[in-house]
Specification:
Number of strands: 30
Helix content: under 10%
Strand content: over 45%
Structural class: mainly beta
Order of helices and strands: EEEEEEEEEEEEEEEEEEEEEEEEEEEEEE
Shape: globular
Distance between the termini: 15 Å
Largest sheet: 5 strands, antiparallel
């Protein structure tokens, strides 16, 4: 357990893999590392919440959050701040899926959607009560042309539409994004107008972000190392209207991961493992099209995830294999200043979240 936010200071949470295969050249972490931001802008360790393989973290409203526990059996844990000012795991649930790697949480319905990469499934969990319960389980079939990564479905993430009425499930294994309409209780049914959005074979879509005002969304493709732009017509049907390369080279293991949009800077940020870079694009405010603006080293190995903190003008990057989170400042235009101002020791860092 760890102390909660005190004195109005922001808390940063870092999910660390606690169990690693023997072949992976990295140190195992201890769970969810908590840090608070001091007045000097530096982050100081506050404690550890001992979750198992917390590969993704999601804000749960107030001072609660959720962690996906990635392993042979699907898992979700909920953490809350107690009256003593301490945060701890207060509920957990296991389900048939495996390789839980992403959470989409809706505070309006208290439903959490857990993407299970290994089993290629999506689990909807009702988190409204003291005990969480399975609301719905969805499975998929199919494959893609990549013989090592696409032998079956691999749901890597899910995302709510801006109005909350729809959920998009991103399948790296079959090069599809599945669309669902949401019921009042958070349950899902296929969108009859467009049940799925196809992507180029072998592209491997991973993460998604919606534009703040345009009928546009962006998707990172892990295998082809691109950012795709989706645009929705007046009937709500989406189609790919552009793509941009994220990697300066393609040979070897090069895998694009997370992305995040910034309203403040009019910029889209992403990270690329293998080249170990941060890459950012200007977003045209009228068309939504991208223009490559900059790239710099992530100051570590295998940047899996990052947090754009617009309030502090910083980018916190989780470098999984070098076992650190590097804190970068952004200039007035949103460009990443290339030298990190702090390096936080975080073995097998997988995800970063602000509470």
């Amino acid at each position: 357990m760890y102390l909660g936010t005190r004195g109005g200071r922001a808390m940063i949470l870092i999910g660390e893999y606690t169990q690693l295969p023997d072949w992976l050249p990295a140190r195992a972490g201890t769970g969810i590392l908590a840090l608070r931001r001091e007045p000097d802008g530096m982050y100081r360790e506050q404690g550890v919440c001992p979750a198992k393989n917390p590969s993704y973290l999601a804000f749960g409203g107030g001072e609660s959050f959720y962690a996906a526990e990635e392993g042979g059996q699907g898992g979700l844990v909920r953490c809350k701040k107690t009256t003593e000012g301490v945060c701890e795991i207060d509920a957990s649930i296991r389900f048939p899926g495996s390789g839980s790697c992403h959470i989409c949480f809706d505070p309006r319905t208290a439903a959490a959607y857990v993407a299970n990469y290994e089993s290629g499934s999506l689990t909807a969990v009702d988190c409204s009560g003291e005990e969480m319960r399975i609301l719905q389980e969805l499975s998929y079939c199919g494959s893609g042309p990549n013989p090592s990564r696409q032998t079956g479905p691999h749901i890597h993430s899910s995302w709510l539409s801006p109005d909350g009425g729809e959920l998009f499930a991103v399948d790296l294994g079959t090069d599809q994004i599945y669309r669902y309409l949401r019921g009042a209780d958070g349950s899902l049914r296929p969108n009859p107008r467009q049940p799925s959005i196809p992507f180029p074979p072998g592209s491997g879509p991973r993460h998604m972000a919606f534009h703040q005002s345009l009928p546009t969304a962006y998707v990172t493709a892990e295998l082809s190392n691109e950012v795709f732009m989706l645009q929705f017509d007046l009937d709500g049907v989406a189609a790919i209207r552009g793509s941009w390369s994220t990697a300066a080279r393609q040979e070897g293991m090069v895998l694009t991961a997370h992305l995040q949009l910034s309203r403040r800077y009019g910029t889209l940020y992403t990270c690329v493992r293998g080249t170990d870079e941060l890459v950012w694009f200007s977003v045209n405010p009228d068309s939504g099209r991208l223009d490559l603006r900059g790239r710099c080293p992530s100051a570590g190995r295998f940047p899996r995830h990052f947090l754009l903190d617009e309030e502090t003008g910083t980018l916190l990057v989780a470098n999984q294999l070098s076992g650190d989170v590097c804190v970068f400042r952004l200039d007035a235009k949103g460009n990443v200043e290339p030298t990190p101002v702090q390096r936080i020791d975080a073995p097998s860092a997988a995800a970063v979240m602000k509470l």
